[in-house]
Each structure stands twice: as C-alpha cells, then as structure tokens.
Amino acid sequence: MADKIQHSTDAMPTDLKFSNFSEEHQIGHGGYGIVYKGVLENGKEIAVKKLHDIASLDDVKFMNEFINLMSVQHQNIVQLVGYCYETRRKLVLHNNKFVLAHVEERALCFEYLERGSLDKYLSDESSGFDWCTRYKIIKGICEGVNYLHNGPQDRILHLDLKPSNILLDKYNVPKIADFGLSRLFGETLSHHTTKRSIGTVGYMPPEYIDKCHITEKFDIFSLGVIIIEIVTGPKERSKRPDMSSQQFIELVHKNWNNRFQQGIPMYTSEEVCGLQLQLKTCIEMGLQCVEAERLKRPTIAEVVSRLNKLDAMIQKISPSLLPPKLPVVPASARGQVRIAKIGQWGGIGGNYRDIEVAPCRLKSLIIGSGGAIYSIGFSYYDDNGKQHKVGPWGGHGANKGVDHTIHLGPSEYLIEISGTVGPFTYAPHGVITSLTLVTTIRTYGPYGELVGNPFHIPMQNKGGSIVGFFARVGWYVDAFGIYVNPNLGATQEDEIGPWGGNRGEAHDIDVAPRRLQSVTICSHDYVNSLAFSYSDWSGHHHTTEPWGGLGGDTHTVEFGPSEFLTGFSGTTGHNVVTSLTLITNARSYGPFGQVGGTPFQVPMRNNASIVGFFGRADQYLNAIGVYANPEQEKIEQEVYITANIYLYHYKN
Asked: β-strand 494-500 against 505-507: which pairing, if any?
C-alpha cells in the first residue's frame, strides 16, 4: 500500500479486495461499471462501482476530476465518498506470447440507498405512491439537476438521466446517481458533438439522435420524460404521441381525480384544489421539457423557479400538502439531520395546524382527553438546541376533559404511537378517540376511549424517534401526523446506574449530553455534593447546580480538549456515596471522600466516554449514575481534523 491521506471522522473505504467481488452482492450495472453492495468495518453500508478497465485513462485528470466530484454535496445527489484502486501483474496473451502486464482495478464508493432505484416504484395513477410522494420526488429531482447545472462547481451534464439512475432513501427522498462519470473518463461533452454513444433510448432528445448534439437541454429532455413517467406511469406515457398535449393533460387529470376523490388518505376540498394545481403544473412542465425543438425547452433554473412559485401558492391554499421547511444543517459528528413528515391519521374535519421550525428532539407532551382526544400540545428542541412550545391545539369537546402531561427524560425517546379513530359527537367523519404512547423507557396511556378503527405507528428503524406533530383540530383532534428524526442512535446516550441508596431528591439533566467538560466534587468523610458542566449535541454549554449539601473540600477537574472520562469507580455506604474516583485517558483523579463500603465500577465499553450524571442527593450525594457516549473516538478525531474533504488513496 502506498500513501494514505487522512479522512474524516466516519470510517471510509480504505481497502477493497478486488478478488472478492461476487455476483450475489451485485445491485446494478451501467456503461462504466458494475455496482456492488459493500459494508465498511464500522457496519456502514456503501455502494461500490467497480469500473471497467479503460486502457487510455489519464490518471492525473481522473484524480483531479474525482476530487472535484467529491465536493458535490446536495441532498438530492448521491454522495461520492471514496475511491480505491490497485495495480497488479497479470499473465496475458500479447502477439501470440504470454507476457506479464500491469492491470489496474478501480472502484468508486457511494452512499448506499436502501430503497433502490425509482424505476421499481413507477406505476399509473390508480396505485403506488400517492400524489404528495410523487410531487416530492419530482421536485427533489429538479433541485438535484439544478445543482449539477448551476451549483458552485463547474457545470455537470448528467447525459443519462433515467429512473434507474435516481435512487430513493428510506423516506423516498430522491438522489441522482451516476453523475459526472463522463468527466471522470476524460470526456468533455458540453456544447458540441460526440462520436461516443451516451444516454438511454427513450430519454435522449431528437438533436442528439439526429446529430449527436449535446447541450444542457439534453438533461432537460430526459427530465421531462421522467416527470411524465412519475405522474402517469411508464405505460400511460406511451399514449402521449397519439394525442394532443391538451388531450393528454385531460386524461391525466381524469385518472388522478378518481384517486383524489375516492382514495386514501381522504382529502379536504382545499387539499384537492391544491393537488390539482400541482398536478397541472407538473404535467404541463413535463410536456414543455420534451419539446422536439431544443430552444423551446425551459432551463432547469426556470423549472425550479416555477415549482417554488407553485409552492408559495399551495402554502396559501392548503399548506398541509407541503413538506416541512427544514433548515440547512451542516455536517457534524451526527451526520446531516433530515426530518421526515409522515401521516395524517384520523378524520377530515378541523383546521390545519403545523410547526414553523423543524424539530430535532421531543421534550414533552400534553394530551387532553375524555371520551376522545380533545387537544394536543408539545415542546421540542430544534437542531440548534432552542426550545419551542406548541399548542395546545384543539378544544375540550362537549365536556371538558383531563390533561395528561408527559415529560421525556434526557435518554427517553418516543418510538411508537397507537390509537383509534371513530365518529364522535358533532364529528361524524371521525376524530382521534384514543392515543397510547410508547417510549424507550415506558408506555403512557391509553388516553381517551378505545372505540373505532385502530391504527399503529411504529418506527421502521430502531434508530428513529418521533420528534413533533402536525394536525387538524376543532373541538377535538380530528387528525394528526408526525415528524420523525431517523438519527436517534446518533444522539442517544447510554444511561448506566445508579449506585447508592434511595434517599434524597432525584436529580437529572434536561438536555442530552455529548461531552463532559468539568466535574466539581465536595467531599470529606463522604461525598457531600457533585456538580458538572457539559456540552450538548448542538454545541451549547450547560452547568448544573451542586447536587447535595454544603461542606467538605472542593475538588474541580477540568478536562482538556483531548481528555475524556473513560473510567468511574467508588464506594457506597448506607444511602450515601462514600468515595469517587475519576479516570481519564490521560490520568486518574481521586479518590475523593473516604474509601469504605461497597465498591462499584462503571462498566464502560470500548471507545465510550462518560458525558454526564444523574443521581439522588440531600445533605450528601446519596446515589450516582452516568450517561455514556459511545462516540468518544469521533470526538477525539474532531480535535485534530479540520478539513472537509478527504480521500483514501491506495496503490500497490
């Protein structure tokens, strides 16, 4: 192996055994190579494109272009995360003689999208994705193409846009794949003709078929075909050449209106109006993009501008049809936060309610209930650590109900909701009649009365949690939907302990900790009190009041930027902590107090660090428990690594 260039905090592809690629792991193929599913040492899944051998490839140009493509970062573009190659000698036949030749094997590594390509999900209007999902996919693809054409990097023409080159993540967010490969292989294809065959039949514009002429309008034509296929399905698209544009638009409207009026979920009249406006805009735009004359097609900037204006109109007509406005979140040790909006469940009455700032973590809930669910209120933290209080939304029904307040602890997450929907007083179309909430620690409810049709909302992946709500309400909660943060595992800390007795008042922190900054212990014969400071996952600093009583000698331990609390031990007597010892990756502190009683030691896992405490205290520290962050190694690396783009480069 040759030079190794540092990479970012996440484990990345550093070495691929080129002899170990197997057909059972093959997930796709294209003009430049075969795609396999791979797994890194840290368990992260990636897609590995093993490139076909190109004898005339210019290594310097390839690497320069690769580094440029590594900087392409957009939520609707598949992320290129690494590149590996090896050179080996192989016996080959040359001029009727066997000779040893140098053979280069190359592989590009991309983020893995578990749902696969869009072509697997295309269907007509009567089945498959609902309209809101299709619209989200259309807009995402358009924004991805706009980034390729007009982003901060040099313009990138895709030249092979098609449903099989658009991948979906677990929340059906579309991501464009196979972009920029022509540039990697030294082909400058912008605004001229080419002799090399590119693209896919059915997605290539007439000027390329007739004259091999290439401009950015090549991608626009392909985009138009994709939009039409998303709206109508591949089979319905085949009818387009046999009718006028107006006839085709009317046919599409007729087919979709049947689903809007009869299908699930049920829509209000305002929502149907908004859906029809979205549908009309998309099908008209798709037809404009496939105009035979190149100059009549819009630019991608014009397409995105039209969609943004459409969203502004929908916001006034029926905002429930739009996805939440999410902040742009910089990459961090947690990865990029993307919140999913899911639902609604319930009836069709009530007025729409939603939040204005995307949620990151749920803090509390207030459920008003009696014979049904009358109201819902909640508080949450956004990704910057700011707290927001919402509601309560709804009323108190014909008879005032009871409010149930739930405060989630710093390591408690809402992972499941179930309930029932049925008709109720003055609400014949149905309201939420009961709710049961399940967290990582316990079950709350049921609230209301268990009558009507049941529903159940579990998290599809263990790492997700419910972090917020939207709803339609009047006297009751007519319907509600949820916001889901898929990255619970990235912010969740382990709660270990406590050790000690049951006397005293319970003490805990309100915001989940990420890194411990200091600990202050007052002790003499026993541990009189404990206080500490820490930073949360948004980088905000928190300091606790001393837990315990006055007296004893004060010992303050401040941890350096690369020092972590990796061990914690002590002794306990009858309802009191008698001593504590702190062990970091640099040294040991203590013991503080008199070592006597029953010993305990925190069972830390590898690469974990203690980041906070909880416990009980009165005149002394009665009991102590710890929060542990399993990502100490990531935080350590952040101290030393400041670059944004890294590359592993291996060569024999």
From this structure: unpaired
CB-side neighbour CA atoms (13 Å) of 204 = 14
Ordered domains of the chain (ranges, CATH): 18-111 (3.30.200.20), 118-321 (1.10.510.10), 340-489 (2.100.10.30), 493-636 (2.100.10.30)
Chain center to CA of 198:
33
Quick one: pLDDT at residue 145? 95
Q: What is the percent of the chain with per-residue pLDDT over 90, rounded to a whole number?
A: 25
The Cα 608–Cα 565 span in angstroms is: 9
For residue 136, say whether it is annotated as part of any ligand binding site: no
Question: What does pTM read for this prediction?
Answer: 0.51
Handedness of CA 211, 214, 217, 223 (dihedral sign): positive
pLDDT at 124: 78
How many CB atoms sit inside 10 A of residue 560's CB? 10
Preceding peptide of 152 cis, ω within 30°:
no
**What mean pLDDT is predicted for residues 302-324?**
82
Q: Which residues contact 448 (CB under 8 A, 6 or more apart)?
A: 369, 370, 371, 372, 373, 419, 420, 432, 433, 434, 435
**What span, in angstroms and rounded, lies between the C-alpha atoms of 385 and 371?**
36
Q: Using alpha carbons, select from 404, 333, 1, 314 the residue that is nearest to residue 132.
A: 314
For the stretch 226-249, pLDDT in tens is: 999 999 887 766 666 667 778 888
Q: How many CB atoms lie within 10 A of CB 507?
A: 20
Q: Which has the higher per-residue pLDDT, 400 or 393?
A: 393
351-397 per-position pLDDT tens digit: 888 898 888 889 999 999 988 999 999 999 887 777 899 989 988 65
67 Cβ contact list (under 8 Å, min separation 6): 645, 647
Do 163 and 137 meet the contact criterion of CB atoms below 8 Å apart? no
Strands (E), 178-311: 192-193, 213-214
Q: Which residues have a Cβ under 8 Å from the Cβ of 626 and sit 6 or more positions away? A: 495, 496, 497, 568, 602, 610, 612, 613, 614
pLDDT digits (tens, 9 = 90+) for 103-138: 777 778 888 888 889 998 888 777 788 888 899 999
Our answer to whether residue 160 is catalytic in this structure is yes
Q: Which of 15, 160, 311, 553 is catalytic?
A: 160
pLDDT computed for residue 131 by the predictor: 86
Burial 215-250 (b: 16+ CB within 10 A, else e): bbbbbbbbbbbbbbbbbbbbebbeebeeeeeeebbe
